[in-house]
Amino acid sequence: MSDSMTATAVLDKPAGEPVSQPVTGGGSKINDCTIHVATVNGSGSQSSNTVLMRSIFQMGVPVSGKNMFPSNIAGLPTWFTIRANKDGWIARKKEVDIMICMNAATAREDVMALQPGAVCIYDAPLNCKGMRDDVTFFEVPFAKLAGELSQDSRLRKLLTNMIYVGIVAERLGIERDEIVNAITKQFKGKQKAIDPNVAAIDKGMAYALENLPAQHRWRIERMNATAGKIIIDGNAAAAIGAMFGGVTVVTWYPITPSSSLCESLIDYMKEHRIGPDGKATFAIVQAEDELAAMGMVLGAGWAGARSLTSTSGPGISLMAEFAGLGYFAELPGVIWDIQRVGPSTGLPTRTAQGDILEVHYLSHGDTQHIALIPCSVSECFDFAGEALDLAEMFQTPIFVLSDLDLGMNNHMSDPFVYPTKPYRRGKVLSAEQLEELGGKWGRYLDVDGDGIPYRTLPGTDHLMASYFTRGSGHDTHARYSEKPSDYKATVDRLAKKFQTAKQFVPQPVIDRRPNATIGLIAYGTTDIALEESRYQLRNEHGVETSYLRLRALPFTDDVKAFVEDHERVYVVEQNRDGQMGDLLRLEVGDIQHKLRKILHYTGLPCDARSITDSLLQMEKDGTRVIKIGLGAEAVTQTIGED
Amino acid sequence: MAESVLKLPNEAAAPKENRLGLKALDYQGGKSTLCAGCGHDAVSNQIVRAFYEMNVKPEKVAKFSGIGCSSKTPAYFLGRAHGFNSVHGRMPAVATGAMLANQTLVSIGVSGDGDTASIGLGQFMHLVRRNIPMIYIIENNGVYGLTKGQFSATADEGSKLKTGVINDLPPMDLCALAVELGCGFVARGYAGDPKQMVNILKAAIAHDGLAVIDVISPCVTFNNHDGSTKGYAYSKEHDELLHQIGFVQSYEQIEIDYEPGTMREVTLHDGSRLLLKKLEEDYDPSNAVQALQRSHKAIDDGAMLTGLIYLRPEKKSFLTLLNMTDKPLWSLNEAETRPPKEALDQIMRELM
Predict the structure, then answer these.
(1) B14: confidence class by pLDDT, cuts 50, 70, 90
(2) What is the average pLDDT across A231-254?
(3) Chain B 54-83, CB below 8 Å of chain A: which residues?
(4) Chain Cα centroid distance, residue A405
(5) How high is the ipTM of this complex?
(6) How far out from the chain centre does Cα A266 lie?
(7) Would the CB atoms of B96 and A462 count as touching at under 8 Å?
(8) Which of A283, A534, A642, B249 has the highest Cβ tally under 10 A?
(9) How many Å apart are CA B88 and CA B79, to the nearest integer?
């Protein structure tokens, strides 16, 4: 799609020259730091990183954990970033305050990326201390300490990870009891696993106390901002939502970053969805590819089941043909797209919001799909049930656009709310209803004027129940037709159905501030950084903004009204071309000159400071598009990925 | 040449109504728009007859197809059953999904050699591997009809198009492939032999599991000329029968006398009996290795091997392995599929 906006002034922001400055006081920073763990993938650091994150969470401090990992099983660099923030700003932050250097391959890069005043804990052989003089270095002989704990080389490797947790905990003031609680949870109460890990924590804490100089700059202190909260990833949240939303047929083909959605679902369903007869109230099938997964979902939807599949961009591409059939033949089904970086294989383990246009227009001909866009784990839960309802109500494929950051990373949330509304199964005629109608009905007749026809399910025991489903031209009674009038009537009715959907999809969340001339539009995980950016703009620069968060396609009428009501509207999203921005330009038509684009597409989750800097610069010099640069983010680029 | 069908004693004339009180007319579909003399129409007629004679309620049947001339045919039989003409080569996935949603459906799919052996080969193989309970018919004529006569992957080596183009590549034997993949029911019929065809179809309806039936079904427009190896004349001449087939319904009291060692009798899932009378050779359809050997020999001989190629009635279907509740999944309500609030509370507690 051509971009006339970029023709005005495209400005790639130069690296590492912030327009604004974060507020940094002297002395201690309490409950406000970012911990970056640099390891090698396959070293088993996931458990210890989770324990570190959870122990901060259990201290009552808002926290997030993001895994930046390569598309590889063992041997390549991987990073885990924990951000703790007393005000609840837990989007990714570019600046790293505490670095744990365990990977020789990236040690220099990791250290060079630190901001002055940071703390670096490093494995002794990496000898980082000479690399800079404006960083506090703590050298730790991890191999020696782990050797004192176990003779088993595999176990020593795992315990090494737990030792750094002990060291960080001791230096930051994280309570030992909370670490033990987190370990107990992590290892599901298995004492055999708990004991050596606790011993490793103690080993690390003792070493820090006895050998390392004190540091007071970064502190974690108990507060009460996480009581009653949960930590979960979006894929598991979606799985739970689908289970409570009554999904019965699930098909999938493994692909990062979506696999864990169906894998979680398998676990939850086995536990909660076995009927009193000992039999499953579901079928979950690993398909031979995404084409088959999509075909099964639509076949199941055709036969009346609440069905879903989960995939990522490459899988969506393969589902394109079936998506068109689903749209035209009017077949229900739910497709989760956990977006990753494309095109092609792209960066399979990095995040993006790059499938907006692909999904919206998926397939050939005049196709338009309904899509839901969750921004949080609780919306993953809610939208999972919502999507199953919408699929049956609208008899069409419903897409849910999540992404790797939401799907695979840890997010804090209030507990999910138990759904009490009955399922909405849509317009399905039973044998009894057919009898009442005297057998007179038409599969594609718009009886109610909303563009949504009635259907019957195969197996319905009535002489007049059957109809013939096809992707080729058909009339109101599902008979084969190539008549111009029949074709036009069909696709026009489908367009009407799409208009009807506006009333039923999740409405945008709008925060209008009095006197704000600047409007912001974002969706999905960009929200996490954007809310923090709004806080920065307001508190550091006195810039007030209104904000509209999109939650679905098609757009509702209040989207255009929001653009009308603001002088300049910044569309912030995580793809190169500003795909949603382009859809918005089509939507608002003659006032599209108000729209500007802030784009973040490095594969890493968007951060608040980059948005703040970009917006301030655009306000100052009238730039219409900023493609956020790299700067310090280069640290997390990996080499040798396939 | 021997008769392909076993003459049964006391065989009654076909009744005017079946055991459901339905007439053969109740199993008809829409008017065919295929070329006059197309083998596919002969197959459709035998499908009508088999479902009628097997007393299957048409409303309980779901018909599936991919894309192509053959895939149009579900519109031409069993008009009282729901039909689904899906996308090219992807019918197995659609049928699988539908069967997961409602395992009480009696499922029949019609595909062609282009739809199955080329674009849909992967899905076909996985359908066989999963053993989804359905009848899967390949109406095999060696050419793409709807796109006007290009060779398909089942065309015999050396066979000739009307335009004079010679096929240089070896044919895919879909029956041998199905045997290799462990299909529990593999047969080949010939559109020009309706009696054999209807017996094969009846046995397929009685079978619990996937039944793959390759039917040589000549294309009168694009592949029925001199030099064609899938036309009526060539097929009739090269039809090589594995045995004579007889089918006895579970409720029929028919006793057959035969000399020891001349007859194989197999009881099918619904209690009906399949009778296979020995011809020149003693063919054992439970022996996969013999089935493959015989199939390869037929290709070498330029013969069209028909009959029941392989049968393993006890193989478990995928739906059985899934251990689904007896009530079809589509019909489950909130009380059956939404776990109680305590379940969510427990999950939430574990995440705190």
Answers:
(1) confident
(2) 98
(3) 57-60, 62, 74-75, 79-83
(4) 4
(5) 0.97
(6) 20
(7) no
(8) A283
(9) 22
